[in-house]
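Field: COMPLEX_INPUT
Field: COMPONENT_COUNT = two
Field: RESIDUE_TOTAL = 315
Field: MODE = joint
Values follow.
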Amino acid sequence: MPTSHITPEMLSAVGREISWRVSFPITASDIRRWAVAVYYPDDPPAAFWRASHARGAANDEIQVPEEFNPFAWGSAEQSPSREAADGSVEATLHIDPPNLEFVLNGGMECDYGLRMRVGDVMRSVIRLHSYRERRGRLGLMLFTTTEDTWTNQDGYVVKTVRQTHIRY
Amino acid sequence: MNLAVGSEIPAFVRTTGLANWNRFAAVNDEFIPIHMDDDAGKAAGMGAAFGMGNLLWSYLTAMLRDWMGGDGRIVSMACEFRSPNLKGQIVEARGRITAVRGEGRESLVDLDVWAAAGDTLLAPGTATVAFRRRHEQTSEPLEVATR
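Field: COMPLEX_OUTPUT
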């Protein structure tokens, strides 16, 4: 049984930029589909469906849910490392990854800034934030946290998300 | 709107399973075996296929959003995914106010939030939302713009 999955090489990578990507412009259709999926089996709120119901919206603009993901089905541009990567943070950073088979979503922390709007283009920059370990029923678990900062086309911060994945 | 410390906000409740998960997978590109196939879920140590953490996050967000009704904004939220959301579970996204404080033009409301299925805690967390203070009410939406 390993005493640690964290190598000196992995520790030295903390803080490094992992990847960046730029979304396609957010469309009203994207929003409607997202809202239908989240609110299923109920109808989604009208603010995500019809512009006239979106309080504070300007000119035929429906609201964008705070947690909407404009990168779900691809990016307009992305860093070469993101194009090449197929798996771990470590592989993207060209360091040896730990030999762990399973990955779970461990949790998220999000700070919100300016709300996304239809037509916005998001730029996401992801950095390696931290590693930690804990022993549990699944064995020695590796918690890897990345920090993803989104800015819109005007440079305003839309959100910063720290996402933790658990590998075991 | 009751902003008393200790009060609970209306829950967001969903009976969950492949009907929800498949729809969310389609919008968030999460067609991952552990969310679709019982054997994959068992191999991962979870007993069966289970729902996405990102969907639980959406449920918690929807709870806050529906409660605020367009009058406020979500400042921050955090949660951990502790237990798998299994098929057939009735998931309740809930919140309880823990503090109310003023900051500039806004009233900030801190909450404990959580998603649970019966006695099983799926995702505990915290959130902070902001409302414009009564005397600052205008037709302009609350926005925070930083570069």
